[in-house]
């Protein structure tokens, strides 16, 4: 049988890096079931063309025909646009992809310059401030804007369980819970308590050590001594910020992959956005997308294919001959892809 992969390049450099990931998957040959790709629309451009950012058809095909998917990046505007809502945020909800898993690993650290980073950020993907319940009223102090922050026991428990599961599979088996419950004692308190309760609830993970850190000092520590972190679990917004920050430690956002995972579906997605500053120049780093494909395959149990992609990418980075400008190289997306395909 085949492996049906939905491809949603969406906007900007997504259109450049997702095709690269596709080629890398094809190059795996018989290490995975024969891939079949289904091209799907979503994003800002789709919205400007059709009036919907996430067509119903895209969701339906993902649900009914695809085994997994790869998503590129959307160019969401920073201003409020009537009728527009970020398709990636919506897709995570529609497909109940409750965990965003982002490994950040430094390859070939230069001694004394780059610290050795090897951590996974496990970000809750469905709630927190990203439920997007915002409102504005005219108050006594002028305009007044409010947002609801939702934390539930169910979502905290399942993200906690995913984080413990990932930590238990690693050599250091160390989990750090990120929160700010000194200030937000009810919402972050619930998150913290619930995650802490996972071992007792499941009777598992007794070999995982648990630490916790307030989100602000966690960022500080991430820059000072990233080696203290192994697996970090966080509510949605903190997880978003921490993983971008961690990306800076290893050189470029263009290296960092993620998966959006639920119980029934997995969608790979580079952590970066649509990068309008380099869009169309053919110099976007395809590595985050290739690694996202690897993570997706690994999640589905295709370990051999996933390992091959990771090893090929690591070799290309270590050799340093073919690197895009974000890594201070002069190569194009195509040249980096060709180098990876050469290793495969
Ligand atoms: P960004 O991640 O697009 O870019 C930040 C910086 O990193 C830019 O200088 C960019 O050139 C560079 N960069 C990112 N990916 C790269 C790659 N693969 N190769 C080389 N350089 C790379 O973040 P920014 O500029 O804040 O957002 C731009 C747009 O992307 C916005 O419309 C935002 O809404 C959207 N966005 C979408 C996301 C998604 O689809 N999940 C996530 C983050 C932002
Ligand atoms: Mg982000």
From TrEMBL:
<dbReference type="Pfam" id="PF00180">
    <property type="entry name" value="Iso_dh"/>
</dbReference>
<dbReference type="InterPro" id="IPR024084">
    <property type="entry name" value="IsoPropMal-DH-like_dom"/>
</dbReference>
<dbReference type="GO" id="GO:0047046">
    <property type="term" value="F:homoisocitrate dehydrogenase activity"/>
</dbReference>
<feature type="domain" description="Isopropylmalate dehydrogenase-like">
    <location>
        <begin position="4"/>
        <end position="340"/>
    </location>
</feature>
<dbReference type="GO" id="GO:0006099">
    <property type="term" value="P:tricarboxylic acid cycle"/>
</dbReference>
<dbReference type="GO" id="GO:0004449">
    <property type="term" value="F:isocitrate dehydrogenase (NAD+) activity"/>
</dbReference>
<dbReference type="GO" id="GO:0051287">
    <property type="term" value="F:NAD binding"/>
</dbReference>
<comment type="similarity">
    <text>Belongs to the isocitrate and isopropylmalate dehydrogenases family.</text>
</comment>
<keyword id="KW-0460">Magnesium</keyword>
<dbReference type="GO" id="GO:0006102">
    <property type="term" value="P:isocitrate metabolic process"/>
</dbReference>
<dbReference type="InterPro" id="IPR019818">
    <property type="entry name" value="IsoCit/isopropylmalate_DH_CS"/>
</dbReference>
<protein>
    <submittedName>
        <fullName>Homoisocitrate dehydrogenase</fullName>
    </submittedName>
</protein>
<dbReference type="GO" id="GO:0009085">
    <property type="term" value="P:lysine biosynthetic process"/>
</dbReference>
<dbReference type="GO" id="GO:0000287">
    <property type="term" value="F:magnesium ion binding"/>
</dbReference>
<dbReference type="GO" id="GO:0005739">
    <property type="term" value="C:mitochondrion"/>
</dbReference>
């Amino acid at each position: 049988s085949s492996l049906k992969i939905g491809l949603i390049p969406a906007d900007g450099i997504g259109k450049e890096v997702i095709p690269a990931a596709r080629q890398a998957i094809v190059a795996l040959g018989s290490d995975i079931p024969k891939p079949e790709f289904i091209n799907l629309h979503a994003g800002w451009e789709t919205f400007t063309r059709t009036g919907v950012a996430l067509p119903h058809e895209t969701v339906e095909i993902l649900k009914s025909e695809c085994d997994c998917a790869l998503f590129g990046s959307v160019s969401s505007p920073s201003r409020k646009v009537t009728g527009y809502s970020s398709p990636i945020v919506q897709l995570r909800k529609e497909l109940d992809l409750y965990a965003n898993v982002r490994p950040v690993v430094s390859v070939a650290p230069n001694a004394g310059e780059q610290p050795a980073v090897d951590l996974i950020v496990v970000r809750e993907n469905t709630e927190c401030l990203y439920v997007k319940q915002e409102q504005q009223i005219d108050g006594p102090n002028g305009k007044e804007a409010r947002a609801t922050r939702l934390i539930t026991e169910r979502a905290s428990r399942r993200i906690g369980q995913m984080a413990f599961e990932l930590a238990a599979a690693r050599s250091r088996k160390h989990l750090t819970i990120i929160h700010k419950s000194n200030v937000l004692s009810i919402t972050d308190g619930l998150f913290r308590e619930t995650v802490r309760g996972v071992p007792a609830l499941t009777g598992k993970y007794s070999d995982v050590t648990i630490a916790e850190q307030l989100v602000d000092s966690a960022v500080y520590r991430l820059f000072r001594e990233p080696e203290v972190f192994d697996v970090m679990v966080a509510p949605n917004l903190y997880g978003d910020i921490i993983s971008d920050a961690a990306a800076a430690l290893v050189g470029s956002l263009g290296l960092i992959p993620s998966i959006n995972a639920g119980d029934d579906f997995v969608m790979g997605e580079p952590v970066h956005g649509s990068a309008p500053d380099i869009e169309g120049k053919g110099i976007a780093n395809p590595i985050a997308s290739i690694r996202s494909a690897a993570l997706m395959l690994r999640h589905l149990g295709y370990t051999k294919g996933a390992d091959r992609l990771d090893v090929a990418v690591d070799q290309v980075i270590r050799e340093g001959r073919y690197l895009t400008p974000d890594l201070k190289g002069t190569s194009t997306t195509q040249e980096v892809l060709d180098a990876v395909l050469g290793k495969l």
